[in-house]
Amino acid sequence: MKVIALGAQVLDILVRPVAAIPEGQQTALVEDIRITAAGTAAGTALTLAKLGASVRTAGAIGTDTSGDILLALLAKAGIDTELLVRKESQRTSSSVLPIRPDGARPSLHLLGANLLFTLDDVDWDALTATDHLHLGGPELIGATNAARILQYAKENGVTTSVDLIAPGALGSLEAIAAALPYTDYLLPNDEQVLGFTGSTDLRAGAAALQDAGATVLAITRGAEGTLLVDPDGHQDIPAFAIDVVDTTGCGDAFSAGFIRAVALGRSLRDAAVLGNAVAALVAQGLGSDHGDFDLAAADAFAAANPTRATDPSQSGR
């Protein structure tokens, strides 16, 4: 499977555990500090590569040291970075993540060069040569640009998936609507579905996104698992029961597992199960790149580990 993961490229600096920021110039000792590649394109690319896909990533980064580090981390993970463009005198998007003892991850974020990727930066020939395009963060490059890229991919026989990056509270349907008719698989989280649609009910929000053109939605809900919505109805796929260390990159890992499984011809439900499994593996350590696993190991984890109990009355089919 050949994949291009296009969109948000972020360098994460993670610190754990952080119960509170020290006052003034005081110091707090921590257990771990890590630097990783991340973002809805780069983070997804990391797990896709682990699962055996041939991965290229595309997007905009700066000409700063953070960009140098991000390129090195991606290359070390076996990801082709030739499609990344470096924006002169711009800063690479970065986040500082003080990870809470319970795995929650507040963020201090620099948008950086991600906002500067344009249609002139797209390698259109590379798009026609891939099997799948994953666009992470269409709201960063604009719905019109995202729609043009996805439409071109579809016209050339490439399957497409889209994940969102903005928090639900900052989203709107207008920011993504133009891209949805060219999206085979939309992979947001529950807060994004509610925020981008203005709905207070998750299934009503999913229906609004389907009405706008999205074909299949796999909506991640943290410890509650995934709500899978397609033209035939909806299904609840429970999350795996694990001890969470850090939730950074779990959504990106889910996207990678889901995309990889679909490409292998698995059912949508089985795709969501693999997505949940790789998200669980990533959540057991620090950063988007946590876990030394491959497809076989992820499948074995899914087969051997229990899922969290769910209310059968909430199952859609």
Write structural notes for this entry.
There is one protein chain. The protein has 317 residues and is an alpha/beta fold. It is 32% helix and 21% strand. The strands form two sheets. It has a nine-stranded mixed beta sheet with strand order 5-4-1-8-9-10-11-12-13, with helices on both faces. A hairpin with a 2-residue loop joins strand 12 and strand 13. The two termini are 31 Å apart. 49% of the residues are buried.
Number of domains: 1
Please give the largest β-sheet. 9 strands, mixed
Shape: globular
% residues in beta strands: 15-25%
pLDDT averaged over residues = 95
Tally of extended strands? Answer: 13
| Largest sheet, spatial ordering of strands | 5-4-1-8-9-10-11-12-13
Given the structure, what is the number of helices? 10
CATH architecture label name:
3-Layer(aba) Sandwich
Low-pLDDT ranges: 310-317
User: How do the helices and strands follow one another from N- to C-terminus?
Assistant: EEEHEHEEEHEHHEEHHEEEHHH
Q: What is the helix content?
A: 25-40%
Radius of gyration: 18 Å
Distance between the termini: 31 Å
Q: What structural category characterises the helix and strand content?
A: alpha/beta
- Kindly identify the CATH topology: UDP-N-acetylmuramoyl-L-alanine:D-glutamate ligase
Name of the CATH homologous superfamily: Ribokinase
Would you state the CATH class? Alpha Beta
